[in-house]
# Entry
Amino acid sequence: MPRQVTSRLDETDIDRIVTAIRNSGSAGEARKREAPLRKLLQLTGGPIIRGDEAHFFFESPIDGVVRITGDWNGWKPIDKLDKLNSYSRFYHLRKRFPIDARLAYRLLLDGQHSVFDPFNPYREEEVFGTNSVIRMPAYKSEPLANEPATEVPRGKIREFEVPHLKHGTGANFTRSVTVYAPADMRTISKLPILFVHDGPQTISVGKFINILDNLYNKEPNLDRTIVVFVPPRERDKEYMLNESYASWLAHVLVPFVESKMKLRPAYRGTLGSSLGGLLSAQLGFIYPKVFSRIAMQSPALWVQNEKIIRSFKSVQKLPLHFFLQTGTIHDAETESRKMLRVLQEKAYPTVYRESNESHNWGNWRGSYADVVRWFGSV
# Structure
């Protein structure tokens, strides 16, 4: 697969190619001057990246308006690619990003058609669908997310149907949860338990189980953890400071899983991203004796005028440990930093992380291993 770098070319070379196309005096001359650019894009893929600059290109024989929506502009069509010349088929935009950034985006054609970048081979599933992705030169992907090699011991997976009461109707239903137990453990009864929100996506998109298996194989001395993946049913209602759902998690799900698996955990924790991060904070605030380790990724702390931040600020220190992580590009950095200040003022043991990424699964996936390491050591 092509790499998102410019090979041997520097910015001067790219500028020279672009300038030559812009100065074309005929269609034939434009085609000739476009050839080096087309060859370069075939070799390296797009966008063409050098240092902290990314050069986006789009080729079309038809005139039109080409814009980019992405993580860095809040998915608003404010970045426009300019046609290099009336004779040229190429549109171009130069953008500058942090050298270690990872960013998702799509092209918007004539304000109607949202498409992948045809020159970019990198596509990943994100919060709201699959997008093209830029990986700047210093960005480091998470190799632990890859499918484990055949020799890597796999954890044991169990599925449980947990009883629930549907909100507002009185109708009973069950919710299927997935429980991961580490491989090669003689006994798991006293292992700590981490309850993870958005369970199915955390497994399928976040590759959390791959990360667990690879991490424990790579770091055999790391303390082990049982992980319970909990799916939402009515996500917005359940995750937005819903005390009924929080009560079900603490008083039904926890004892149910522990009884089924005959567990007496040393401690419990909860992990969530976005609204799931808000839910994790809520669980720690209401049930600190049940969930004593709280991990939040890009938490939606702005809900209800930052109610959860104000709640923690208003009470004495609770018996909690925190892991707080956010991206810095149109993510939850503002509210996360406010929460961090409150946690520091109250002297909570806190691990804090920021990355030059946005509100997406690639960002959160990159921190799962650190969450597991933190959870097993506190």
Notes: The domain at 11-138 is CATH 2.60.40.10 (Immunoglobulin-like). The chain has a mean pLDDT of 93. DSSP finds eleven helices and 17 strands in the chain.
